[in-house]
Amino acid sequence: MKTKQYVIIGNSAAAIGCVEGIRQLDKAGAVTIVSREPHHTYSRPLISYLLGGKTDRQRMRYRDADFYETHGVRPLLGHTALSLDPAQKTVALDDGQVLPYDKLLVATGSVPFVPPMEGLDLVSKKFTFLSLDDADALADAVTADSRVLIVGAGLIGLKCAEGLSGRAGSLTVVDLAPQILPSVLDERAAALVQAHIERQGVRLLLSVSAARFEDGAAHLTDGSTVPFDVLVLAVGVRPNVSPAREAGATAGRGLITDEYMRTNLPDVYAAGDCTESFDITSGERKPLALLPNAYLQGETAGLHMAGGGKPFCTAMPMNAVGFWDLHIVSAGSYTGNAYVQCEEGHYRKLVCRDNLLQGFILIGDVLRAGIYTALIRDRVPLDTIDFELIKDKPGLIAFSRRDRQKKLGVKPA
Amino acid sequence: MKRIYVSEKWCLGCHLCEYYCAFANSGSDDMAKALMNRRINPRIQVEERGGISFAVSCRHCEEPLCVKSCITGALSSEGGLITIDKNRCVACHTCVLVCPYGTIMPSDDGMMQKCELCLKNTIGEPACVKYCPNRAIIYEDSDVPAAAR
Amino acid sequence: MQMLYPEYEVVRNPQRCITCRVCERQCANEVHVYDEELDTMRSYEEHCVACHRCVSLCPTKALKIVKTDHTFRTNANWTGEVIGEIYRQAESGGVLLSSMGTPKDYPVYFDKMLINASQVTNPSIDPLREPMETRTFLGRKTVRVERGPDGRLIDNTAPQLTLSVPVMFSAMSYGSISYNAHESLARAARELGIFYNTGEGGLHSDFYQYGANTIIQVASGRFGVHKDYLNAGAAVEIKMGQGAKPGIGGHLPGEKIVGDIAKTRMIPEGSDAISPAPHHDIYSIEDLRQLVYSLKEATEYKKPVIVKIAAVHNVPAIASGIARSGADIIAIDGFRGGTGAAPTRIRDNVGIPIELALASVDQRLRDEGIRNDVSIVVGGSIRNSADIVKAVALGADAVYVATSALLALGCHLCRTCQLGKCNWGIATQRPVLVKRLNPDVGFKRLVNLVTAWRHEIMEMMGGMGINSIEALRGNRLMLRGVGLNEKELSILGIQHAGE
User: Fold this and answer.
1) How large is the ipTM?
2) CB contact under 8 A, A331 and B97
3) Angle C171-C293-C231 (CA atoms, 0-180°, nearest 5)?
4) Which residues of chain C are at the B interface, by a Cβ-Cβ cutoff of 8 Å?
5) Topology classification of domain A325-407
6) Domains along chain B?
């Protein structure tokens, strides 16, 4: 049999997942990774830790230095895939190379979304915060007395703030929304985290946005002005559907795939932040720009490309994040009956609907949260377990003796 | 692959597995010295309620969600053994969020730790198994341990 | 007012205690308590029975149990123990109860007998190189030679028990010991090719599978006795008496008669299980013979019948009567034998040592020419392989062990079985305690013990130049006494060392 030609556009979690998926089944096929960024595969969420000095370039590698060799991957780093031709089954790169493929994965990730804002072009030191290069540039620009203004109090903006604290002179975060982390937290949880972040010396301005910029100052919608030396734009990200969409791939907000990550184009797969996922907890299709999701999608694609595998149909929103040692984990969606516990530095919300756990938010004590996640992922009917028992403390004790034995490996006696 | 199996039928809830685990991974050669006057962070934990008790530690899943979800690549699986490189961990807690058994937890320094079957410490075999006084934790090579057949 | 100071003290080494609280979790007597305020462990020593569960599980060896040195004025006659017993009876007005064999300092004749070994002539045998037979058969050996019409011999051998080694686990009822203890004994008996004994609590349906290695007991309460039960085992034992409490019956209180125990004993839950002192249908050897033959009828003459008695003053004459009653095997239980509960005075003052009973019974049966009509099994504190070798040399066909078996299962001889709070999961019916004895562990330890003993027996036999246990039986020339008087030597039928 002819060796298969696999081409992967992208070099992050979905791409690596795809390589590892392929190699589970096909040790011989030729795998080429095309990446716009010139770096060895690295963990994108670690850029804020890099800024904060909690990791370094060595340790933030997503896989070992010899990953490409041990996995038989030809890395074409620093090359952009400009277009793809599904009829000829080729990918054209910016340097004129044309790569033929038998199976192609589009894992082009996401791109920062910068809404049009008046005067933005006047700002000399402005940055987005998504890539290693962004982090490097920001690190170069920020000095010990820099006043940093971050637009966006989502995960990216706040992680950026954490990374810069201790590096910058002052930090201000502004967001149009009335709460921080609107995609992750409900109002009460957000307030709790907000207080914690403010205690670290970060100024949070909510329910306002920048009406107009000039170099060195932002004029906000409430009439106030925030002077700054460095501006970080962290309003949001959008799936990077190019160049797949131009080649005819169906896309909504992100590329549309089936549960094997196939697009509508033959032998073209898509995985990671550039796609839309089907959220099992809300029943909606939406981009889920989450690293675990990207890896699992990539692996699913890789396995299928190599001729095997099983469908991936357990996607859901999921976040684990910490700010100044306050840990937050959340999963699923929050529509339904909520069980809430809230005290200083601690928050616990479990949302149930239709006899299923649909979502949860834990702040502070997050131990063993995965047991809740599994209840959501496995769609465990709550009346088959003693849910009351684990509302305050997750445990396997909630399951029946039989299920426990199944889980812990001993056959029922 | 050899795995750890626990049997709640024989678990006494004595918690010795937790202490031997903490000791085995302490690097000390004296348990009293290693564990006196401190809260332990064992990699195996006993759940108990109303006469039922059982110990839970990493199942070393064949489809390890923790490894696949780890944002840094600190968690890896080789030959069925799932290990964590604490040097690469940033304590993001994603593994805590995805592990269906709740068996990955913070170590003394806040970075994550998990059962590595004592293959990386000086004991060389799972201490919880070796020191369980009632053979409620066993380390066997089959999917259905002989004791449970 | 508390007249008595705790008998034992818990010594906790603060430089080793890591407050893991395993002692607290494992002590059913609630001796150890964690003090949150002080972050230390405290002890309520008045509850301590010195069972050593805490000591055994303490991971840092921070604990030991010592006998208190608190004392009364020294008095060789009115000892602290005697005084304490009087205080307890003055308070309760009741009979003192105890468990396991008597701890009193009576002579142990096994320890005053020494075993022979070959030198130069009649060379010794190396059991690692030469065959060595420890297998023995229990049952009536005498047969009338009968020939069929074709002149061939008719096999009319009485039913026999085949033992790979002359050791059996003696009677302990399900009720007095736990389900898991029974399972351990049953599985070990099967693995070893020997027998265990149901005691008088009946046979749990789960254990019928071990029938080929089970001796089922019929005692004065007749608990759990039915036709299937009688036929479930390899032999039937009629219990006339028990070494620890000769002349009295048994009493398992109603609170222990729960669930499977009630079902197995075939009595209502919560009712006291009272075994009368005598069998109410046996007042003579003739009556005994009737029961022996009733049981033989019920088991179609396929199973040997054992009659078990306590070693008492007239034991030779009693044994002679039993041999004539049709019994195949006589089991004699010496006064140091164990029990799950007995009145202290009876345990400590009634009966005679098994060594003397065995020697006199064996001699009497020989004198009467009926020794081969029965096998003799002795019990009552057989502690090691040397005791077994000496017992066989004195005339025993096999021995019964119980205390040794319980020790192998973890028993620390705290002698408080009667409280039902055995921390080792043996003499208890509390589920949380019962589960402490995992039969996977227990049965292996029993197998190890008996296997080790077998090796030692073979070594001692080899040393004597004897390669079959049958050739050792009754071979009293292999024994010499030390520090025994003429009378003792004559009863034991042995010479003094040096003779």
Assistant:
1) 0.94
2) yes
3) 55
4) 15-18, 20-22, 25-26, 39, 56-57, 59-60, 62, 431-432, 435-438, 440-441
5) Enolase-like; domain 1 (3.30.390)
6) 1-57+118-149 (3.30.70.20), 58-114 (3.30.70.20)
